[in-house]
């Protein structure tokens, strides 16, 4: 996506907070201008990165209360290097975090936990990033959406809730800073019976506005209006669709938590003050009895969109890469993720 397409997408959606996801956004030549343009509009920008290029690119960005690096770290050195299948990545990311902090940047950590994570190690990791001075942590359960290559190490909802309860138990009395709402964390710990709000975090990719959410690509709308008005939102979410059965990801549930905070401010304040509940019985799980079966159309969607872009004569922006087993032209967008 060009600078202009990014700014137009912002103008269309009017969202107050924008997360620029990857791939690796620092490979995009116009990224400093994209960030600057959004910050000028007083949008809160979270720029996701694996931090491998961060030290080199830092000079192209300016610290601002509206701008935060969002560094991918899935735990301590052993956990993260094994998650990304490469030794030394954790150390480079931590060195870049320290440098960015010393230059006055805001830093958030983007942390996904998978099946088999030791809750004590996860809690120690949160302690360590707090000591590094990061401004907040955004955490999520690894969830087996259809395009993820490794389907074995993802969490189901029961395991997710147990894992986060165990982690939060170690965090009692500590001042871990999260960039997520207290009620979403309470949901991760099994205390809220939330339904997904997929429209709460709309996703724009090089193909258009993705239906229904960041995780599932079941079609693309040309405009934000079309996305909002013509998507069958009720067809998605845990209990409604088979692919959503194990999902507890912020992509769909953070917006539900935020709306609940407005509806029940006293509940929000209590959870914000005391932290997520870790001992009482969990909220009842959503029944999957009436979910509609999964439909598998992502490969066809990608082929159709690539054909459309090629017909439009879009310039090639990179080498050919493998997406879902197909050779396609690489693009600077989150669609490849
Ligand atoms: S539950 Fe919501 S956020 Fe999760 S995959 Fe389904 S639509 Fe997307």
From TrEMBL:
SUPFAM superfamilies xrefs: Radical SAM enzymes
Gene3D superfamilies: Aldolase class I (3.20.20.70)
Region Disordered, residue ranges: 302-337
Cofactor(s) required, per the database record: [4Fe-4S] cluster
Lineage: superkingdom: Bacteria
Keyword Ribonucleoprotein: no
Matching InterPro entries: Aldolase_TIM, DUF3463, Hopanoid_synth-assoc_rSAM_HpnH, Radical_SAM_PqqE_MftC-like, rSAM, rSAM_sf
Record PROSITE patterns: RADICAL_SAM
Keyword annotations from UniProtKB, A to Z: Iron, Iron-sulfur, Metal-binding, S-adenosyl-L-methionine
Domain Radical SAM core: residue ranges: 1-175
Record protein name field: Iron-sulfur oxidoreductase
Species this chain originates from: Saccharibacter floricola DSM 15669
Lineage: Bacteria, Pseudomonadati, Pseudomonadota, Alphaproteobacteria, Acetobacterales
């Amino acid at each position: 996506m060009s600078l202009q397409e990014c700014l137009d997408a912002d103008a269309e959606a009017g969202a107050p907070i924008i997360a620029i996801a990857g791939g690796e956004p620092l490979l995009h030549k116009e990224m400093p201008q994209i960030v600057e343009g959004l910050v000028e509009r007083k949008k809160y920008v979270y720029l996701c990165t694996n931090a491998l290029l961060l030290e080199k690119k830092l000079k192209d960005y300016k610290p601002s209360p509206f701008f935060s690096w969002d560094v991918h770290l899935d735990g301590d050195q052993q956990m993260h290097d094994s998650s990304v299948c490469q030794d030394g990545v954790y150390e480079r990311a931590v060195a870049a975090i320290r440098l960015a902090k010393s230059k006055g940047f805001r830093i958030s950590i983007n942390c996904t936990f998978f099946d088999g994570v030791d809750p004590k190690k996860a809690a120690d990791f949160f302690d360590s990033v707090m000591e590094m001075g990061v401004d907040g942590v955004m955490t999520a359960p690894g969830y087996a959406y259809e395009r993820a290559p490794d389907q074995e190490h993802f969490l189901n909802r029961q395991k997710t809730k147990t894992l986060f309860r165990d982690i939060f138990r170690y965090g009692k009395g500590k001042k871990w800073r999260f960039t997520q709402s207290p009620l979403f964390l309470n949901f991760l710990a099994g205390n809220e019976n939330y339904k997904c709000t997929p429209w709460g975090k709309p996703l724009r990719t090089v193909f258009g506005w993705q239906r229904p959410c960041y995780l599932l690509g079941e079609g693309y709308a040309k405009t934000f209006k079309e996305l909002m008005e013509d998507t069958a939102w009720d067809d998605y979410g845990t209990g409604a669709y088979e692919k959503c059965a194990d999902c507890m990801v912020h992509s769909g549930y953070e917006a539900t938590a935020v709306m609940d905070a407005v509806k029940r401010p006293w509940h929000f304040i209590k959870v914000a003050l005391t932290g997520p509940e870790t001992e009482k019985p969990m909220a009842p799980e959503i029944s999957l009895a009436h979910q509609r079966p999964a439909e598998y159309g992502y490969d066809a969607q990608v082929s159709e969109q690539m054909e459309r872009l090629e017909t439009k004569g879009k310039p090639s922006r990179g080498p050919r890469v493998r997406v879902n087993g197909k050779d396609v032209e690489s693009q600077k967008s989150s669609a490849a993720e």
